[in-house]
Amino acid sequence: MIQQVTRGIKISVHTSFEGTFYKNYKMHFAFAYIITIENQSKDSVQLHTRHWRIKDSLSRTEHVDGEGVIGKKPVLKPGESHTYQSGCLLASPFGNMSGFYNMVNFSNSKQFSVIIPAFKLSAPFALN
């Protein structure tokens, strides 16, 4: 598990390999990730947007921006957490993801970014 704390917001990431399949005559490698966002600060916050950098071992990089996480913009009071699961497809058996969440602190209405630490995606059968 990968973890990082930014401005009192702890991000924990757990990944798993889900399998391979063909799409448009190309092999794809499916990965799932579970992220827990924990508010360790003294202020209530809300997640508004996300930015992902997804890179595979063939040096292809994709940037993905969006509102919330899986259709939600969770509000986290001090001590609360939000866990969600999502996934991605890679054209190779190895890669990594990183990014950030844009959040708002309710006590001062200021926006801030929370780093999503880089985490590896790897198919177990491809390891030496």
Label the CATH architecture: Sandwich
CATH topology: Immunoglobulin-like
Low-pLDDT sequence parts: none
Q: Can you say what the CATH homologous superfamily is?
A: ApaG domain
CATH class: Mainly Beta
**What is the total domain count?**
1
Radius of gyration: 16 Å
- Structural class given helices, strands, pairing? mainly beta
Largest sheet data: 5 strands, antiparallel
Helix content class = under 10%
List the keywords:
128 residues; mainly beta; Immunoglobulin-like; 5-stranded antiparallel beta sheet; 4-stranded antiparallel beta sheet; 9 strands; 70% strand; ApaG protein; ApaG_domain; ApaG-like; ApaG_sf
Provide a brief overview of the structure.
The chain has about 130 residues and is mostly beta strands. The protein has strands spanning about 1-5, 10-25, 25-40, 45-55, 60-65, 75, 80-90, 95-105, 110-120. It has one domain: Sandwich (Immunoglobulin-like), CATH 2.60.40.
Question: Can you characterise this structure?
Answer:
Helices cover 0% and strands 70% of the residues. It has 128 residues and is mainly β. The chain has a single domain (2-123), classed as Immunoglobulin-like, CATH 2.60.40. Strands 4, 5, 6, 8 and 9 form a 5-stranded antiparallel sheet that branches. The chain has a 4-stranded antiparallel sheet with strand order 1-2-3-7, with no helix packed on it. The model has no long low-confidence stretch (mean pLDDT 95).
